[in-house]
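Changelog-adjacent note: as of this version, every example in the card shows the full chain rather than a window. The one below runs 453 residues end to end.
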Amino acid sequence: MEQRENKMGYMPMGKLLVGMAWPIMLSMLVQALYNVVDSIYVSRLGENGLTALSLAFPVQNLIIAVGVGTAVGVNSLLSRKLGERRYDDANAVAENGLLLAVLSWLIFLVFGLFFTRTFFMSFTSNTEIIEMGTQYLSICTILSVGIFVSVVTERIMQATGKTIYTMFTQGSGAIINIVLDPILIFGLLGFPAMGIAGAAIATVIGQLFGMLLSLYLNAKFNKEIHIRLKGFRPNGRIIGEIYAVGVPGIVMQSISSVMTVGLNKILIDFTETAVAVFGVYFKLQSFVFMPVFGLTNALVPIVGYNYGAGNRERIVKAIKLAGCYAFGIMTVGAAIFFLFPDKLLLMFDASPDMLEIGIPALRTICISFMGASIGITLSSAFQAMGKGIYSLSMSACRQLVVILPVAWILGKLWGLSAVWFAFLIAEVASLALALILYRRIYNRQIKNLGAVQ
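Full-length structure tokens:
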């Protein structure tokens, strides 16, 4: 029965958090490596290729937002049902989560078929950027079913504590991407040279492989959850509960796409090179942020399970430990960005103009990393306890209320180099809001939970 109850209810917290987090962190580091390698190869096609990827990023981020937001809702609800020992409901959560993943993919299928060229034409009249971007984004959206299904099935495994398997699914897909990128982009081993379309094909092949592997591992090894498609009927109540956390999560991460589109609009008025720098920054910062996201992915089911079980002390301890670990990771990352920005940019064949813009940009933005570590940790804790609206408020504050207007004002007053300071100002505002919201949820909900048994 103790095994049925799940290790999240009794294992020592430090051992539990690290044990659940390291496979996710490792797989996300491989994902980050893929993101960087992908852009390095595309940079060999010219700066316009990097700019096309940068402009495509908000739509790709929106795909991730919808997929991960839905999966967070599944993860949070599933872990709480397990904590409450409501196992039939937990199975239904997993089944309805997979349905929502497929429905989400169909929306982006339509976008990929009919709207990608219009999207790029809204930013630039540069025909090479439009053509390269349309090729890349059409493939990534039309065949995005892999990422939607895999992210939900991975979170199902995370909710039951089986994070080791997500390392295999995410890591193997990313490795396939890395191997196929040069082969398909440059036409190696007898394949035709496909250019930027080859990068997109490598991406979706890796995602589809990860999806198939994740479905297999869930069926084979995840004995706490039983997914049965025969006789399945959508459950409106469960879908509503998933989206109670999932929709704020989707909106929260979608806000990042809106922010990126807005910043691209601001930056492209200065120069297209600034857009390329911004895109390179996002690829590089994934090496720092991905491990932290892996850590907080492990935090969500731990907090959710113990919240469902009414265990106050384990909730608080998990949040504190995750915050300390995240702060350490971000501090190391900020030091690397501040000390070696030129070395990082030169990996992407940075031109003198890119270096001139990019070096002060990386050094300025990285100062915000430490504050972001605490904000990310608290945001994940809010989601785990069903308070997705709190996470949404933080994201909206940071990326819409502060970054965009401040970046526009700073750019108008002091030029391009001042735009990057908007990240620092936004992080301070978001962190202050996070601490206020945590104090509120602690006093209203956590504080009144029963003590550890």
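Structural remarks: The longest helix spans residues 47-83.
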